[in-house]
Design a protein that fits this description.
209 residues, alpha+beta, 40% strand
Length: 209
C-alpha cells in the first residue's frame, strides 16, 4: 500500500503547480517577448490596435529560417550585439524574406519576437495580441507554430460527489437563524496529470517603413 503521507505530498505539489498555471498577469505574447538588439532603445511609434495586421506563415519556411539564423550565431566569432548594422540587417532580412510579406522585406523593421511553447489553446486573433503589438510600436504581426510532441501537464478536472451540507437559514416564524442539513451534490476541482500536445509558437513584430 502506498504511504498516505506521500499521497498528500504529491497532491500538495500538484496544487502548487496549478497556482502557477492559473495565475493572472501579462498575456503569453508579452511574457515571452524580447526586443531585437537594435530596436530595444528606439522610440516606440504610436499605433492603434485596430490598425495592426496579424497573419500566419507556414512553419516549413519559418522553421528552417530560424535554424539558419541559429547557425549564423554559432558560427560568428563575435556576439550578436556586437555585429555591425549592415551584418545585423542582412541577418534580419533572411528571416523577413520567409514571412511571405505583402511588401518588400527591405521595407520592414523587425522590432522583436515572442517565442514560447504551450499545451493550452492559443488564439492569435485575440485582441490581446493586437493590443500588445501596438504597445511595442508594431503595425504588422506574423506568427507561425508547429507541434513539438506530447508532454505531461497539470490540469484541473471536476469530480462529482454527494455530501451533507449544513447551512444557516432565517426562520421567519421564530424570528431567528436556524441550521439545517441537506444531502446534495458537490463539484470539486482537483489537479490531475494529463498528456497534451505541446506547440511551439514564434511571433514576429514588424513595423513598415
Amino acid at each position: 500500500m502506498q504511504d498516505p503521507r506521500k499521497i498528500v505530498l504529491s497532491v500538495l505539489m500538484v496544487g502548487v503547480a496549478m497556482v502557477g498555471l492559473t495565475g493572472c498577469g501579462p498575456s503569453v505574447w508579452e511574457r515571452s517577448f524580447s526586443f531585437e538588439p537594435e530596436a530595444a532603445a528606439a522610440p516606440v511609434a504610436t499605433i492603434k490596435p485596430a490598425n495592426v495586421v496579424v497573419r500566419d506563415a507556414p512553419w516549413g519556411r519559418v522553421g528552417p529560417a530560424l535554424e539558419a539564423e541559429r547557425q549564423r550565431l554559432v558560427a560568428s566569432d563575435t556576439h550578436r550585439e556586437d555585429w555591425s548594422a549592415d551584418r545585423a540587417r542582412e541577418s534580419k532580412l533572411a528571416i523577413l524574406r520567409e514571412l511571405q510579406l505583402p511588401f518588400e522585406a527591405a521595407n520592414a523593421e523587425l522590432l522583436g519576437r515572442s517565442h514560447f511553447r504551450t499545451t493550452q489553446p492559443t488564439d492569435p486573433d485575440s485582441p490581446e495580441l493586437r493590443s500588445f503589438a501596438a504597445s511595442v510600436g508594431a503595425d504588422y504581426v506574423v506568427w507561425s507554430k508547429h507541434v513539438v510532441g506530447k508532454v505531461e501537464t497539470v490540469e484541473r478536472e471536476p469530480v462529482q460527489s454527494n455530501r451533507w451540507r449544513t447551512s444557516r437559514v432565517w426562520d421567519a416564524d421564530r424570528k431567528r437563524y436556524d441550521y439545517e442539513r441537506r444531502w446534495g451534490p458537490e463539484t470539486v476541482w482537483v489537479p490531475v496529470v494529463v498528456e497534451r500536445e505541446q506547440v511551439r509558437w514564434v511571433v514576429f513584430y514588424l513595423r513598415q517603413r
